[in-house]
Amino acid sequence: MKKIAVILIKVYRIFVSPFLVAIFGRGCRYRVTCSQYSLLVFKKYGFLKALNLSLRRFFSCHSFS
User: Fold this and answer.
1) What is d(CA 63, CA 65) in angstroms, rounded to the nearest whole number?
2) Helix (H) or strand (E) segment spanning residue 3
3) N or C: which end of the chain has fewer CB within 10 A?
């Protein structure tokens, strides 16, 4: 599961993220972007803990906060 999550995050960073920045302007408000942070935690922790940390970070960003 961790490998699939890392692949999906990398695909997001290559294809989806630039498109969203072009439409909505500014990217992530954090210095280490949410996707970069997610990659780091998925490589360091197990799937469930990394998913929890990544979702927390995501929902504290942009209009969700």
Assistant:
1) 6
2) helix 2-11
3) C
pLDDT above 80: residue 65: no
Output the pTM of the full model: 0.77
**Domain coordinates in residue numbering, the chain:** 2-64
Q: Which pair of tokens denotes residue 21?
A: 């920045």
CA angle 44, 46, 52 (to 5 degrees): 100
What one-character DSSP code corresponds to residue 62? G
Cβ atoms < 10 Å from Cβ of 38:
24
Q: How far apart are CA 10 and CA 15, in angstroms?
A: 9
Neighbouring C-alpha atoms within 13 Å toward the C-beta of 25: 3
